[in-house]
Amino acid sequence: MSLKQKINANQLPQHIAIIMDGNGRWANIKGKLRVFGHQNGVRPIRKVSEAAAELGIGYVTLYAFSTENWNRPEKEVKALMELLRKTIPQELPTLMKNNIRLNAIGDLKRLPEQNYKALMDAMKETETNTGLVLTLALSYSSRWEIVEAVKKITSEIQQGNYTAEAIDEKLFGAHLSTATMPDPDLLIRTSGEWRISNYMLWQIAYSELYFTDKFWPDFGKEDLYKAILAYQNRERRFGKTSDQLTTSSNKK
Ligand code: IPE
Ligand code: IPE
Ligand code: MG
To answer: Reading across the β-sheet that carries 101-105, which strands appear in turn?
Structure first.
């Protein structure tokens, strides 16, 4: 039985978030420049998107460039932006073929104008696709996103739309850039690092975490299947006891 066949189609994660890490180290080991690693980080994005679309997963959100990544050497930031600008239109046929809708979250206004335009064009082109929603987190950090939500809520209160008492988790979540998505069920990080690096801090409250030593350029469909199988072997208790979960009436 292949790994794919072992996956229980009735217990798929609805939303998978991925911290794509290790491009630079992957290249360095090969005696190449870091940018070579980033170039080789595109193929796994295609593979993972295809695999997720084939399985019928609703949402995949990829951490592609963090707020903190703006502090990298100018040359690397420039190379990453160039790669992004070229890759987006190149990947359009794959997105269309797989019925994938492209989406983006983050401080997109900080992106170079041409990148912003390439992104908006591709999002427009794919907006009627009904399959997987593939979100790129670009110029994104969770603390930035939370602060933005606080600003929006404060301004709505000042305008008299509602009072501070009306703030609850639902209202807060609705002011995040992920408002239209369910929280990630599964968070994957590659490259052997065990940290979150400012990614979806609010949304991953109950996500299952999966870490792999593989560097992102080596990550493929089989690795995604492995992560999903690991997820399907976890017991998600949401604070309850294991016994409560086996009593079907108490199942979350
Ligand atoms: C992930 O790979 C891609 C981005 C953060 C843009 P890195 O560039 O972080 O590669 P490592 O972690 O230095 O190997
Ligand atoms: C996290 O990777 C950001 C992205 C994958 C885009 P980093 O490589 O920037 O994270 P740290 O600095 O190792 O925590
Ligand atoms: Mg890294």
So the answer is: 101-105, 133-140, 59-66, 15-19, 186-189, 208-211
